[in-house]
Amino acid sequence: MGMLLLLHVVLLAVAARAPAAEAWGKEGHYMTCKIAESFLTKQASTAVKDLLPGWAGGDLAETCSWADRQRFRYRWSSPLHFADTPGDCKFDYARDCHNTKGEKDMCVVGAINNYTAALMDSSSPYDPTESLMFLAHFVGDVHQPLHCGNADDLGGNTITVHWYRRKSNLHHVWDVNVIETALKDFYDDDQSTMIQAIQKNITEGWADEEKQWETCRSQTKTCAEKYAQESAKLACKAYEGVEQDSTLEDDYFFAALPVVQKRIAQGGVRLAAILNKIFSVNSRLQSI
């Protein structure tokens, strides 16, 4: 049975991942998609706005946490948010991209590839609005290092820590706590200011790297496997020095924050590159 069919019709008995944290949290997904919007071509921007649901108000970023809210409605989608590994700092698609039943392609990399394929196929029977919203979310997910963390601890979900004085878990630290602390300490709790700071880094500090981020030579798939490999490597560093009941404070925060900001930036640039490719192809198909 094809992967796209599995995505939409099979209800999986998903093993209980620890209390589900929203990947990147609402703020991280919003920032990723806001950055993507700024890199869209005019053609892609118009196509994206045409597909957005009315409640989004024409803003892709408003939809980018939608997939997290659907995890109980669409239970089959739960394994599509991550691609955990045995903890060897590597992602191997053949080994790691499956759900708890062993069904292949059921991971965040498989989801990105297949929702991209659905949007590129003008005859696809699948709802293009949902495909767009899933794709935008999953590109954010694959850039969060702990979404390619260790399978044994569910990507850090079972590692209880204290984030300064607050009880948390390692996965939640990377999803939410680092971003919330940065917003509070450096950006006056203003999300738009943090987005502007990341965008400035893209055009200045990371200017030499930005074109490399969006480059993808694959003609048949996305480069999501490469993004997962990057996250798996970063996840190993995220675990360093962390044990059950560790207290994580300034040293950990100041090491994690640049990684989080860069991964949000990379996710935004790459999401835009995927959407630009999708809608330039669709435009050519329609003109033939």
UniProtKB/TrEMBL annotation:
Membrane spanning stretches? none
GO molecular function annotation = metal ion binding; RNA endonuclease activity; single-stranded DNA endodeoxyribonuclease activity
| Keyword Cytoplasm applies | no
Q: Which organism is it from?
A: Urochloa decumbens
UniProt cross-references to InterPro entries, sorted A to Z = PLipase_C/P1_nuclease_dom_sf, S1/P1nuclease
BP GO terms, sorted: DNA catabolic process
Q: Which PANTHER family match?
A: ASPERGILLUS NUCLEASE S1, ENDONUCLEASE 4
SUPFAM superfamilies named in the record: Phospholipase C/P1 nuclease
Task: From the Swiss-Prot or TrEMBL record, give the protein name.
Answer: Aspergillus nuclease S1
Family, according to the entry, reads as follows: Belongs to the nuclease type I family.
Query: Which keywords are on file for this protein?
Result: Disulfide bond, Endonuclease, Glycoprotein, Hydrolase, Metal-binding, Nuclease, Signal
